[in-house]
Amino acid sequence: MDWLKTYHEDHKAVLVLLAKFEGNILDLKAGLTTPNIFSEFEEFGDVITNVVIPHFKKEETGVYKQIAELNPEGKEFIQKMLEEHKALFSLFNLYVHAVEIKDTEKLIEIGNRFEQVLRHHIVQEEDEVPKFLRQ
Ligand SMILES: [Fe+2]
Ligand SMILES: [Fe+2]
To answer: For all residues of the chain together, what is the average pLDDT?
Structure first.
């Protein structure tokens, strides 16, 4: 299925990006900042806005709906995934604000949480979604 391929490709691309982001947060923590580190944080935000948020929307109106409707056992899983989308959306808003005002401490705290929740979310989807679709 074509959309499933895009779905997987998006996940892979975001995981690569998250590894780089994690490195930038670690640099910030260690005080190893370069003058362009904040523009990299802005670029990361742009990818979230232009790729990850539309990806969430596509899941919510597509594959999530499909699983919840066709598979009673999948309903609980989808509920959890929807809650994570909401949590990620809130964290992302806090992230954008922290980048805007260049609040290093907040950026480290929020950035770490956002990175962990998003990585966990993607791994869960990669592990669980194909199982529900196969049934
Ligand atoms: Fe998702
Ligand atoms: Fe996803």
So the answer is: 93
